[in-house]
Write a structure and sequence with these properties.
255 residues, mainly alpha, 2 domains, 3-stranded antiparallel sheet, two-stranded parallel ribbon, 5 strands
């Protein structure tokens, strides 16, 4: 399944919650399967956002065009970029760029997970977390985040070469990183990039030879679990029970 298809199968989650409330009250299992925007209750806008992001993944429009299209829809809804440039304003350029980048990065990396086969794993059994995109104010704490995530899983499948952030593709460190191990609160709960909002960090394949040099056992790696952004009512209900919130209340916004 290609990234555009992955975006199109996601559910809509209209919500009046802010970002912090969403992270605290809604399971990551639900958020990664949903198209949502903090404090955006219009399902119609979210459906248009989903389609604009899909068209961008297909190469039919650029990120700038996607942002302009969403900005025009929001202006017709009564929002204006003149109301402020922070991410709290749905029509701000920063907010629109953040939404488009997050949705498209997630879809691209879910598609990448689906491409991992035994043959691919034989050649490239690990990933390295590294900076792929620049940021005006890049986070400087990725080594600390990595160390906290690695320690939380007992360095299972993680290289102890502290100069690089490398782990086998099926290592639990990726989920720990997305869960914010160590107390980081800007994460997305994903076992794949982006691990945090507005992150320019991503995956690069690591060869068998490099794994061995870094002290990893490439033969101990298996094909990582395939992540899905498709809605699954039974799985969402289990997530609701696991995380202790009212599924019926959240499900009102799931189309």
């Amino acid at each position: 399944m290609n990234p555009a298809d992955i975006i199109r199968i996601k559910d809509l989650l209209p919500t009046a919650m802010g970002s912090d409330e969403l992270r605290e009250q809604v399971a990551a299992d639900i958020l990664r399967r949903s198209v949502f925007s903090a404090r955006m209750e219009s399902a119609r806008y979210l459906a248009q956002m989903r389609e604009v992001c899909a068209q961008m993944m297909e190469g039919r429009i650029s990120q700038a065009t996607a942002r302009d299209m969403l900005g025009g829809i929001l202006e017709r809804m009564g929002f204006s970029p003149q109301d402020g440039g922070s991410v709290r304003n749905p029509a701000s350029l920063r907010r629109l760029d953040l939404i488009v980048e997050t949705q498209t990065q997630m879809a691209a990396n879910v598609a990448r997970l689906s491409e991992q086969t035994p043959e691919v794993m034989e050649m490239w059994p690990a990933w390295e977390l590294t900076r792929l995109e620049g940021r005006d104010l890049p986070r400087g704490d990725w080594p600390q985040r990595w160390d906290a995530a690695a320690r939380s899983v007992g360095f299972e499948g993680v290289s102890r070469d502290y100069g690089r952030m490398v782990a086998l593709k099926d290592s639990p460190v990726w989920q720990a990183l997305g869960d914010g191990a160590g107390g980081f609160r800007d994460t997305l709960g994903n076992p794949f990039p982006p691990f945090a909002f507005n992150s320019g960090m991503g995956w690069v394949d690591v060869t068998r030879e490099e794994c061995e040099e870094l002290g990893l056992d490439p033969d101990g790696a298996s094909v990582p679990a395939e992540a899905s952004l498709a809605p699954d009512r039974e799985e969402l209900a289990r997530a609701a029970e696991k995380w202790g919130f009212d599924y019926d209340e959240i499900a009102k916004g799931v189309a």
